[in-house]
Amino acid sequence: MRTSIALLAAPFALTALVTLATPPAQAADNFTVTIKDHKFTPTELKVPANTRVVITVINNDLTPEEFESSTLKVEKVIAGNSKGTVRIGPLKPGRYPFIGEFNEATAKGVVIAE
Fold it and tell me: What is the pTM of this model?
């Protein structure tokens, strides 16, 4: 009887050990950039290097704006008074400029991966 209980319990114990030893899948880090008066805030967004990053872009202007970066390989139009999500990375350490293509003179920023 004890042997059969031990044989039945063994797979459950092994599953528990594997589950505890396996690191959980790491979620992307989340950051926020706001557009107001055709400017990004913050203008410098520091993110961890070698990590997947999600940036929520909140557009508080009435007009649409495009979050664009050739170095990040992203283009996303954010309608006026709305928000959008941009996923980037993992990034090597460095500086990655971005612009608001519809207002390039004022809408500028940089993602800094450290």
Answer: 0.74
How many helices (H) and strands (E) are present in the chain, helices listed first? 1, 9
Cis peptide before 24 (omega within 30 of 0): no
Phi and psi angles of residue 101, each rounded to the nearest 5 degrees, phi first: -60, -30
Residue recorded with tokens 């612009």? 99
Q: Are strands 94-100 and 65-69 parallel, antiparallel or unpaired?
A: antiparallel
Q: Which domains does the chain have, with CATH numbers?
A: 29-113 (2.60.40.420)
Cα–Cα distance, 12 to 14 (Å, whole number): 5
Tens digit of each residue's pLDDT (9 = 90 or more) over 90-113: 999 999 999 999 999 999 999 999
